Prior knowledge:
4-stranded antiparallel sheet; 3-stranded antiparallel sheet; 7 strands
Amino acid sequence: MSTIKIRTKLIEGKTQIRTLISHPMEHGRNLDEATGKLIPVHYIQELLVKHNDKLIVNSQLGAGISKNPYFAFMLKGGKKGDKISVSWKDNLGNSDVQIREIE
């Protein structure tokens, strides 16, 4: 099961793209209550959004973003059936990709 949820909506010749990513986004300063030790740094470093395989967003992220981050974008154009892909990579080498057709 993907960690990425994508919602798209056509609005007056533009495409609204909304994403929600399930990720802990730990900055390394929180304590694990059970052990009393710091929770290791674990965050998304790169977020890519593509429209029909054309890169439209390339974001470099840091540890200051909250858990389960939400991102929204407006794309000029787009039509039903076009493909939107969202992918991420984190500092531990994990990654995920989700593809959705514009509705």
